[in-house]
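Async update (no meeting this week)

Hi team, since we skipped the sync, here's where things stand on the single-chain job. The sequence we agreed to prioritize is pasted below, unchanged from the tracker. I ran it this morning and attached the output directly underneath so nobody has to dig for it. Comments welcome in thread, and please keep replies under the output.
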Amino acid sequence: MGNNPDRGRTVTTVLGRRLGGELLRMREACSLRQTHAAEALTASVTKVAKIERGQVPMRDPDVRALCHLYGETDESVVGKLLALARADRDRRKVQGWWHQYPQLKAQMEYVALEDIATQLRTWQLSFVPGLLQTADYARALAVGNGTWEDPEAIESFVEARIARQARLTGERSLSLVAVLHEGVLRQLVGGRDVMRAQLDHVLEAARLSNVCVQVVPFGAGAHPGMTSAFTVVSFAEPGALDLVQADTLSTQVWLESEADAARHNAIFDRITRLGLAQRDSLNLIDSIRKEM
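Output:
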């Protein structure tokens, strides 16, 4: 028998880490050890360790068994953990279209989660969200970012970016709430012609019943979103099962705890209250488009 490089390999996922972290917190709150959890699951301590690190999927009966062991009787809490486990299983078994695009390597986990999400709430300071970008705008971003010099690699990235937008239409349409700083609309990415077409595209997308676009104008003053853009990804009703994603210059950061999600949802709500109503936001976008 030859060596199989995949034999015994475990894969951690964002959703798995979130679930494992919640179960670890519950176990430690009860002053129980991994051996107790292993006995409840009729499993090894090694498997419990992998569960708590988010490296293996969990069956519903195992989630319920651990909740029983840890004394968690609130069905709303148990239901959230079951939903998280199911979402993680769905994420692991999907071999989506994005695997054919090596240019998406840094974004692979995000795109996979976007594919099974129910809602995105995104706050952007510098550029139009990927789900609302035109091909020319995405291409100008890729060129300006300097990540790839090969034109074929750039075109592959643009093709993948546009493919993601299928989530906004069809039977499984994603709910998108995009709040943009006014500077996003005035930054001449690709020049005036590209930006004019991009703003046209945003206006068109905003007509979809599942898309809401708001603008925070320059006159809004100081607010808690000035230091960072971020996206709250939901897999159930908003607030029930959320993860937060933010970009840095070199990587994507995932904030996986319930407390992080609650904090960023509250910040998003504060930013939204400072923004223009959707009708006024679209009027401002149209005004800026006409200036170009």
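Quick observations from my side:
The longest helix spans residues 75-93.
DSSP finds twelve helices and six strands in the chain.
Reply here if anything looks off.
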